[in-house]
Amino acid sequence: MIADRVVIKRHGEGAKHVKKTTAVPGQSSIATTFEKAKQSDDEKCKASEIKLAAFMAEHKISLRAMDHLIDLLPIMFPDSQIAKNMKMKRTKCQAIINSILGESEKQDLYADLKEHKFSVMIDESTDIGAVKTMCVVVRYYCAIKGQIVSRFWDLIQIHGDEISATVAAATAQHLFEAEIKSFEENSIPTENIIGFGSDGCETVGRVLLDWKIHAQHLDSSKLQRGMRENV
């Protein structure tokens, strides 16, 4: 077989070749296969709003500034259609931070705590409405940042509606159970907890004792499981 231009051209004009090539009319060319899908102006606008909301949250800028900044952007960038389409003032900015950025950060934190060991730090406080709360912070090594980080975990209301009036005191047992429940509700393994920190008040000191007992229970459970596996 001689593979010259005449033979290739004749093969291309053959009925068998024409039939196979017309069977897939919607097939894209190899040049367009690796091209990234272009974002619409609406998608670009949404992405820009999320990035701007993240900037406001990261640098702790008052969201009231958005009421003026969003009107300034199209004046500063008159040639940008994205700047003209952005309609995000403080109410929308707050909603994006709470519902989109906050939820995304929360899921990332859940994934980290399920895979890595971490320590727990708590501090009890009473707000202006005389409601007792307990702030919980977790501290662990973040592989992405390459350093130890402290992340807010939860703000637990100590006396919820389910707590009866007879349990009015913020006892050490109640604080301990509230912490454990907070982690278990989000499927965080409590055996990943390797440390505990708090201030020096008596009640929180008893919480530390409960944590030590809990850690000893986990260690004994692991020991028993290992002994059963080796029998």
UniProtKB/TrEMBL annotation:
PANTHER family: BED-TYPE DOMAIN-CONTAINING PROTEIN (PTHR37162:SF1), HAT FAMILY DIMERISATION DOMAINCONTAINING PROTEIN-RELATED (PTHR37162). This is DUF4371 domain-containing protein. It comes from Chilo suppressalis (Asiatic rice borer moth).
